[in-house]
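User: Fold both of these, please.

Assistant: Here is the first one.
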Amino acid sequence: MRKQLHEEFLNIVIELNKLHITPLLLGSLGLEKVTGKSWQASDIDIYLINEDVLDKQYDQIHKILINSKYEKLNTEDMAYIKDDFKVEYRSFLDFQNLVKIDKEKFDLVKTEGARYFLPTKKQFFYIYRSAVDDKKRQHKNHKDVEKLNYLKEMGDNKK
């Protein structure tokens, strides 16, 4: 895991927590946290579990990222970049369109002054199983298949 990417994630989460937002970490960075294996994470995928957050706190989230020296990418509504760090945040509803997982079942991680949710290995298995079949993710299919196969090899996908 790129230590700098994880530190950048924690810095953002600490600021989100000040707004009473506890995000969900997905993507390669989240999978690295769960498996301890490097997946060459190159961005930070943050999902906002409370669906009202995007409507009510969009400006505050935007301000956190701008104050942290991120620039908004014109091509995507909720994507920002700073140096070689890319942050994307989305609504949990977007995630639920991919896979149905009860948001109450995610692990709550408390570390270094930050609080965030993280899927279990079993939940990541279901996430990547769904991702492999998602036509919108065809450009990432080989990576998703590799992650899914690794999770299968880990065993019965218990927590």
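And the second sequence with its predicted structure:
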Amino acid sequence: MKFSFASKSSRSYLIFFARPIVLLAKSGHRMLRTPYMILLILFFLCQIDCKDRSKGVDDPFWREESLKIAGEICKKIANCGKETGAFIGLELSHTQLAENRLQEASCHEHHRNTNVYKLIGDNPDQIRSLTRDCYKEIIEMGCSDLVDKKYKKIVACELMGRIQRGESLE
């Protein structure tokens, strides 16, 4: 089994920049004896080894399911807000903002930027499971329980909130 230190694009990048360094080394250039060379080498190593890990897992089935879940939760909260009069005490601009935010299109737009939607975290299967469990609990809750924020006491919802904030579950 052949060990690969870098991807093909990283290797071509490394070869492109390594050649001038080799030529400088052969010429005995003074720059190689300075701290700048150390920084330059660290930069190249970081370019090879560092990856953008914030992209998450690309799972189109999950993304569709999680958008549906988010939309239904927003719909439930909006309906409960109207039923219980939770928006009555707010200023008109705040009420409109809350109602606009809870519309399905706006809810989906906001959800697309979350860690749960992108499956960013320790374990994508665990994220899916926690999201489904939290969703079931919220949908079964009564409006008075939602207004009283009892969803914060549900373990699955609390752990899902930690994922959304980028915290580790351990």
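The radius of gyration is 25 Å.
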